[in-house]
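This section describes the prediction task in plain terms. A model, or a person checking by hand, is given the sequence of a single protein chain and must write out its three-dimensional structure as a string of tokens. No templates, partner chains or ligands are provided. The sample shown here is typical of the held-out split.
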Amino acid sequence: MNTTNPCLTCGACCAHYRVSFYWAEADESVGGAVPAHLTEKLNGFFSAMKGTNQKNPRCVALEGAIGSCVRCAIYEKRPSACRELMYSWENGIHNERCDQARIARGLPPLQRPVG
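The expected answer:
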């Protein structure tokens, strides 16, 4: 069984969705870990990762070439929205949002593992 994380060769979700989260996740004074300088305020309650709140989003923390080799520069400090978005078939669960992002970037949807 292949245990390689497909996100390491994808990155489509980081360049397809707005990454928004409760503002306190980027406020060190209340225990937030997301680097504040990589975020922008959306309103009184929510912030977003810079680069994701635009017509052609791409998270400022995404490094590498989508569909080839990517990494999150703040993986250990990424916001809850990123932590909660699972790749399709992770833990045996299909994720339509993963498929949509991949298709939008010209990548095929992930297939259910065999066996």
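For orientation: The helical segments are 80-84, 96-104.
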